[in-house]
Amino acid sequence: MADLPHLDDEALAELQDVMEDDFATLIRTYLNDSKERIAGLKSAMKHRDADAFAKTAHSFKGSSINIGAPHLGDLCRQIEKVGLEERLSDAPPLLSAIDAELQQVTVALEALMARSAE
């Protein structure tokens, strides 16, 4: 669903209220974990491990939705299905889309953190 936003402002505002001073730490942790998850997806694809691929995608989907990145979460849902159906040959274009979307989310979250720090 390409019409989903990069960030869900309401979800992020709620997280910011709940996390208070730990919000920036949460965002940095999410961004670092996301890079590791993409590396995990690429490794699982390279080793043709559909189970590890699906599990990594599932985890990435949940964290993306929880952090307020709905489009990225939807892409992860799509790639999780690829893993569950053992269609890893269909994964490369989705992985590229996830990489690109994570870059967009990273820029937006870093801008949000910069505004919050002011």
Automatic annotation (TrEMBL):
Keywords linked to the UniProt accession: Phosphoprotein
Pfam families reported for this sequence: Hpt
Modified residues (Phosphohistidine): H58
HPt domain mapped to chain residues: 19-112
Protein name, as recorded: Hpt domain-containing protein
